Amino acid sequence: MKGILYIVSTPIGNLEDITLRALRILREVDLVAAEDTRHSSKLLSHYGISKPLISYWGEKEKVKSEEVLARLEAGQSVALVSDAGTPGISDPGSVLIEKAIREGISVVSVPGPSALIAAISLSGLLIKGFTFIGFLPAKKGERLRMLRDLGMETRALIFYEAPHRISESLEDMTEIFGKRKAAVVKEITKVHEEVLRGSLADIIRLLQDTVIAGEYVIVVEGRQRGEASFEDALDEVRALMKKGRGRREAVKIISEQYGLSKNDLYEKSLLQT
Question: What is the pTM of this model?
Fold first, then answer.
C-alpha cells in the first residue's frame, strides 16, 4: 500500500502559528521533506519532534523528489514542508506534488498560515477579489512588461518581493498603476512586522524612513472605473479589430472594461482610422 504525501503549512514567522493538526502529522509521518533541513529542524526541535529529514531545495528538488517518491511507493508517509508557509506557492514543492499525483499517490493538504491572506487582511483596502502574482521578474524590462499586462486587472494584485528590489518594484508600479492605493506589509507575524498604507507614491516616501530588510508582501488595488485613458482604450479597440472584431463590438467590449462612454469611444475610434 502506498504512503501519503502531506502538504504541511508551517509558520511564516511566529512559531506559535502552527496548527495542532500540523504538529500531529509531523509527529506521525516517517519522513519530513524540507526545503532547507537546517531551517525545518529548528521548528521540529522547538516542538520536541525528531524525524528523519531530507532536503529538496533548489536543483535538488528534481533529484530528491525521486527518492521521496520511492519512499511513498514503499508505503511510508511523508510531510512536505517549506521554510515558511505552504509548499508549492512561491516556494519549492510543486515538482514533488505533481509527480506524486501522477503516480497515484494520495496527496493531503494540511493548511495553515498564509502571508498573502494575512497581508490582504492587514491592507485596509476593500477587496472583493484578488489575483496572486508572487514574485515579479528581476529584470526591469520584464518587470515593466508584466505590470503593463496587469494594468487592466480590476481585482487587487498581490505580490511578494525581496528587500533588495522592493523600492524598484514600487517605483515601476507607480509608473504603470499611477495613484492607486496600496499596502506593503513587512515581516508578517515577526517581531518587526510593519504595514505601510497609502498611494504607491506615499509608500515609496514612507520606505525612506524605514529599515529595508526581511520579506515583503505588496497589495495594490485593481483598476478603478474611469482610471484608464481614452488613448489606452483606443489601443485596445484597434487590437480587437485586428483580431477580426467589428468596430461596434470592439467598442462595446472595451468601453465596459474601462468604464468609458460607448458613444464617445466609438466617435474617437472613427477619428483614429
Answer: 0.80
